[in-house]
Amino acid sequence: MAKIIVITSGKGGVGKTTTSAAFATGLAMKGFKTVVIDFDVGLRNLDLVMGCERRVVYDFINVINGEARLHQALIKDKHSENLCVLPASQTRDKDALTKEGVEAVLSDLAKDFDYIVCDSPAGIEHGAMMALYFADEAIVTTNPEISSVRDSDRILGILQSRSRRAENNLEPVKEHLLVNRYDPVRVSKGEMLDLEDVKEILAIPLLGVIPESPDVLKASNKGLPVIHLQESIAGQAYMDMVERFLGEERPHRFLEAPKPSLIQRMFGGK
Amino acid sequence: MNRHDLQQESTCFRLKGGLVALTTIELLNFTPEAFQRQLSKTIENAPRFFEQSPVILALEKLEPSHQFIDFHSLRALCKNYGIILVAIRGGTESHRAVAQTAGLAWLPAAKVKESKNDKITENKNDGNVILMSQHQLRLELNNNAVDNNMSEKQPATPSVSSVAKVITTPVRSGQQIHSDGDLIVFGQVSTGAELLAAGNIHVYGALRGRALAGIESNNHARIFCHSFEAELVSIGGNYKLISEQDKKYWKKPFQAYLVEDKLHLEALS
Ligand SMILES: Nc1ncnc2c1ncn2[C@@H]1O[C@H](COP(=O)(O)OP(=O)(O)OP(=O)(O)O)[C@@H](O)[C@H]1O
Ligand SMILES: [Mg+2]
């Protein structure tokens, strides 16, 4: 049975799409057949981050409306053969995402894939509800700041009361915390919440901490999920997170500010 | 001096949000005769139950066949019994239209699932005004059942159910939990979450949201928590917004209770 995983947050711009692309790519690199779906109807950008925007012909809504077959809309990733992207529509109205339609597409995908990763739009409106409704697991993406943490708390409440699993009294949606854009220097200055604070407020298991890194933007400008950049600390942190998700033990890295090197110290740099 | 006058002139009132407890009459079935019959019986048994209190008429459970209700007459009827009907909740477009001409406000249908009492419901009231149904009174048309119910309900003041509701999951921002008796939470209560209990509230975790105990004017109710980080505590309608001065209890085991209608906060050592 395919596992459905939603990447959600409540607040916008915290890194859901970046994480969806990296996480789905990582699962595919580990040999799992993976599809990543953009639920952000009208604001699609997963295809940009995945570097397949020019190959979008049909989209998720076309499939729901029966205007295209699923295999016509799925885009094969150019780097990993186990990975496909189902893009969102740029033009359609969000209400086209009906519960029945989404369910039909998901159950079709479940026949061919091991993991279905759903990139949720921001907020708690219809699109976000559809993205989380069928989830088995949720990766709640948060930045270390109070408004983002508060919104994630809200999303956790919704996951446990309004998802399919909650409504049918099934085993609850499994929760994972992903702290993104963690900047140890700013944390030590008190400009950002400490990791411990975030963990205490949300009280769910920590899956990963992704450091703030300019590589993320560089990678997405190239249409390459950052997990491909093995020398990047963000790429490494995403690979750790994927391996942890698959059950391996990985210590959390990049939590401390890098120590100034001997040369920097000698020359009185920072 | 002039300035003072001017200020007095310009601040005739202020707009404020607040918490209001309201009794809800939930209609299950309706004919004017039956309604009056049950109402008069209810009041016979509990003469001080309503006492000129504002009441909401909930229509969510009403059979769909009851399209037309004359809210004008209903309002007058209620008034005769010392009930001030202020609003209807839920119902159809035509209910809403008739209610409007009768001078009643309209509130959106409550989305509380029946029989899933223990489930946490999403709090749809994100604004300042939160209405909670206080003593819910079911008007059932099965008269025998009513008689039995009412004889149990002899005491004029609403009694607190002795059954505690136990919640084993965290209560998250935007969620609201209501208990007719005590409320026990084994987990944290997030900022932006709300606990409402007719009885005591116990939180075996961090209480970061709002806790309102004794909401049916039970002044003996108490609030206990493992780590006090609350936004607001209230007992029997006497509430306190937590401010800087209360930070001395911060993150400590804590209780709150009333001493002569004054809220008393205390760290438990
Ligand atoms: N770890 C990081 N370091 C630096 N920049 C990052 C990091 N993660 C994300 N960003 C940047 O933050 C911005 C928002 O990221 P992204 O689009 O993934 O967020 P989102 O949650 O999907 O947004 P939306 O809510 O609009 O869908 C992008 O410009 C991205 O490059
Ligand atoms: Mg996005």
Structure write-up:
- The complex is a heterodimer of chains A (270) and B (269).
- Chain A is α/β, with parallel strands linked by helices and 270 residues long.
- Helix content of chain A is 40%, strand content 16%.
- The model of chain A has no long low-confidence stretch (mean pLDDT 94).
- With 269 residues, chain B is of the alpha/beta class.
- Chain B has five helices and 18 strands.
- Chain B has helices at 2-10, 32-45, 71-80, 93-101, 143-152, and strands at residues 19-27, 53-58, 83-89, 105-107, 121-122, 130-133, 137-139, 165-167, 175-179, 183-185, 194-197, 201-207, 210-213, 223-228, 232-235, 238-241, 254-259, 262-267.
- In chain B, α2 runs parallel beside α5.
- Classes of the chains: A alpha/beta (270), B alpha/beta (269).
- The interface between A and B is medium-sized, with 14 and 19 residues.
- Bound molecules: adenosine-5'-triphosphate (ATP) and magnesium ion (MG).
- Residues 9, 12-18, 40, 121-122, 180-181, 210, 212-213, 216-217, 220, 234 of chain A line the site of adenosine-5'-triphosphate.
